[in-house]
Write a structure and sequence with these properties.
It is a single chain. This protein is an alpha/beta fold. The protein is built from 18 helices and 16 strands. It has a five-stranded mixed sheet with strand order 3-2-5-6-4. A five-stranded parallel sheet has the order 8-11-14-7-15. The longest helix has 20 residues.
């Protein structure tokens, strides 16, 4: 049985036929991968074929662009209609008033003009509490101003339905991994995030690409990646998973990152699995010393304090920057390419590892997936769930010999990266005894795919 046949047999509803060269309409709509896969699955037959006109009509009807927001408001407010469409929604509960509100960030609609009745919230909060942002079918209505309500009218959420068409069964995912070789599984992981495994020259390039997924699967994993332009950093971190946040350029403040004392709201670091500062050389920090101190404290312990507010998070911090060809050398002073805020050894030391982005080929048509693959929404939801599984770290602790008087920060970094590799590549490993000669994972494979790469990634930070 081929790897594709096994993939479709064991994952069935969680697979979708992806052909990015033929579905450029999704790129034009700026849809994330998980939304695209859901739409494709809705219209594809068992052979992966779909009617382009039907699919396009569905997109036009159910995914209104930003220019249609005024028309939607007119239908709600002046025509008294209910409106349903696919959208990204963010919900919040006001601490002082207990009011439940929502915003639609893609349309610039903010929480101050919204309301969710409690019975509606009780009915759909299971789907809405899964992450900071959630995609699904929103049904909106309008509540006109009441003479006793000085706040005026509100747009109401009348219903919400997540587009996730399957149950996330992590144990099934772990067990199914047993049916694939390591080589097959590496290719499956690449397909899950929209890449064509046959477009890579060798396994080294494939694994370099998959290294970007480590923050998806391990809590508070802090990484630095420097790479040439066009290797797909922004796409993978910003378009594949709904559990992360990509910030590209502009101004970054402590208030935006951690906590805004004026608005009394938590920042990006809360509610996301990872925060990626993309094109980090173009990001300006409003107060370098303030941001450096906040990052050092958070990256060490997972806690932060702003004024009288103390918070915790499990989000990783990832720096992504472009690097010129003459600087692509881990034995040179590459970190001089980073902004001033990161020009301090104590802060750099809190990053667990370094990704050599120049080992990842520049994006080309041959690297775009064209075949059956895991649904991106399903796959990234699995990775999100695996973050809570502590058994893998226990296995790493049992299988790692720590030299006498080893630096604690180095040891933690290597173990954390190795744990992420184990979850990603070998999720079927359940106990340390599974890693042995003749076991589910040989000691040589464990060293090759988990421990040695972790040491190498940490070593570049320490150099």
């Amino acid at each position: 049985m081929t790897a594709t046949e096994k993939l479709r047999e064991y994952f069935d509803e969680m697979t979708v036929y992806k052909d990015l060269q033929k579905t450029n309409m999704f790129s034009a709509l700026s849809l994330p991968s998980f939304m695209r896969d859901w739409i494709l699955k809705r219209f594809e037959d068992n052979n992966g074929n779909f009617n382009a006109d039907e699919l396009s009509g569905f997109v036009q009807k159910n995914l209104p662009n930003k220019d249609k927001w005024l028309e939607i408001k007119d239908l709600l407010i002046n025509e008294g209609q209910r409106v349903k469409f696919l959208a990204k929604i963010i919900c919040d509960v006001n601490i002082a008033t207990r009011d439940i509100t929502f915003s639609l960030p893609d349309y610039g609609f903010t929480a101050k003009d919204s309301v969710i009745d409690r019975y509606i919230w009780d009915d759909c909060k299971h789907d809405l509490l899964g992450s900071r942002e959630t995609w699904g079918v929103v049904e909106l209505g309008y509540a006109p101003p009441d003479q006793h309500d000085s706040n005026g009218g509100k747009i109401k959420l009348l219903g919400f339905k997540s587009f996730c068409p399957y149950t996330i069964d992590v144990e099934y995912y772990k067990n199914s991994r047993r049916e694939f070789t390591t080589e097959e599984w590496i290719d499956i992981l690449l397909g899950a995030v929209d890449y064509n495994a046959s477009g890579y020259q060798d396994e080294r390039q494939k694994l370099a690409m998959l290294t970007r997924l480590l923050p998806f699967v391990e809590k508070r994993l802090n990484l630095i990646e420097l790479a040439p332009k066009g290797t797909g950093k922004s796409y993978l971190y910003g378009r594949v998973s709904r559990f992360g946040w990509l910030s590209s350029g502009g101004v970054m403040s402590r208030a935006k990152m951690f906590y805004d004392m004026q608005k009394k709201t938590e920042g990006l670091i809360c509610g996301n699995d990872f925060i990626v500062l993309d094109e980090v050389q173009t990001i300006r920090f409003s107060d370098v010393d303030e941001m450096r101190a906040a990052l050092k404290g958070y990256m060490e312990s997972g806690t932060f304090t702003v004024g009288t507010y103390s918070g915790t998070s499990e989000s990783g911090v990832v720096l992504c920057g472009n690097i010129s060809e003459d600087k692509m050398n881990e034995y040179e002073r590459m970190f001089d390419e980073l902004p001033e805020v990161f020009h301090e050894s104590a802060l750099l030391d809190r990053f667990h590892g370094f990704i050599k982005g120049w080992d990842i080929p520049r994006m080309n048509e041959n690297l775009k997936i064209a075949g059956w693959a895991l649904n991106s929404e399903y796959f990234t939801s699995i990775l999100h769930s695996l973050r809570d599984d502590a058994s893998y770290r226990n296995i790493i602790d049992c299988k790692t010999d720590v030299p006498y008087k080893s630096d604690t920060r180095d040891t933690e970094a290597i173990k954390r990266i190795a744990t992420a590799y184990l979850k990603l590549l070998f999720p079927h490993i359940r106990q340390s005894q599974d890693i042995a000669y003749g076991g589910l994972l040989s000691l040589s494979e464990f060293d090759r795919y988990c421990l040695r790469p972790a040491k190498n990634m940490r070593g570049i930070i320490k150099y």
